[in-house]
Amino acid sequence: MLTCRHLIDIREVSAEDVGLILDTASSFKEVNERRIKKLPTLRGRTVINLFLEPSTRTRTSFEIAAKRLSADAVNMAGSASAAVKGESLRDTARTLSAMACDLIVVRHRYSGAPYILADAMDACVVNGGDGSHQHPTQALLDLFTIRERLGRLEGLTVGIVGDIGHSRVAGSLVPALRTVGARPVVIAPATLMPARPEALGAEVASDFDAVLPELDVAYMLRIQGERMEGMPFPSLREYARFYGMDGPRLARMKPEAIVMHPGPMNRGVEVTSEVADSPRSVVLDQVNAGVAVRMAVMYLLLGGADADAAAA
Known about the structure:
Strand order of the largest sheet: 7-6-5-8-9
Radius of gyration: 19 Å
Shape: globular
Number of helices: 12
Strand content: 5-15%
Distance between the termini: 17 Å
Helix content: 25-40%
C-alpha cells in the first residue's frame, strides 16, 4: 500500500512508493496487451475526472485506466461544471463529496487547486496537472518508460530541454528523478528559466550542444505559448536551431540514448519529424505507459490495501 493518501505533489511520494507504483504498473501493462483489457478490481468505485483546463490525452488516459479497472468513470469539463455559474472550487468539492465519489482526478489552471479539493472532501485526490506546479502521474509514466527502455533509473543523466519556467512536467519530473537517484539537468535560454532555476534542485545549463553527449535521455518540452506574455525568443526558427532535437544532434548522443516528449509535439520546433518517428523516440511508449501507471495509482490508492477489492 502507498504511504500517501493523495497524489498531489511528487515530492510527497517516497522512493519505495515510486517503486511500488512502477512495479504495479508493469503488471497492468500486461493486462493492457490482452484481448480483453478489463479487471474487476475497482468494481463499484466511482472516479470523477474534473478537468477545468483543456486536456485530451491525460483525461482520456485517466478515463481508460478507470474503466479497465471496472470503476464507474464520470467526466466533468469546465464548461459543464457549476464553476461557470460562479460556484467556488471548494463548494464543487463538497458537492461531489456528498455524492460519495471515491477518487477525483483534477486538472486546474491554478497551482495548488488539488489541495483545496483534498481539504474539502473525503475522496482520494490525484493531481492531473495544476498550473505550472506539478503533473505527478506524467513524471511517474516518464520514469516507467525510461526504466522499460534503459533497464534502470539510478545513475542516468536526464536533460530536460526548453520551457522550464512554465512547465509542470519539469516541476514534477526533476524531483522524481532525484528521488530515484538519477541526475536531472535543465537546459534552456535564460528567458525560459524560472527566476531561481537552482531552486528546482537540478543542474542548470544553457548550451544544449555542450551537454548533449552526457545525456542518457533528452526530454524535450513543449513551448507553452498559452502561458507566455510575448515571445521569449526571437523566433521559433531560432529556438529550434539552438534547442530543437534534430538528426545531427541525435547522432551526437550516446548510442542507447532516447528522446522523450510529453506531447503534444510541435514538430520542427522542439523535435523534427526525423527524430519523432525514429526508433530512439519513445513518445508513443510514454502514452502507452500512461494508462498502466494511472491504473496502478488508482488501484493502490483505492484497492491496493484492500485484499477483497484486489481479489475480486
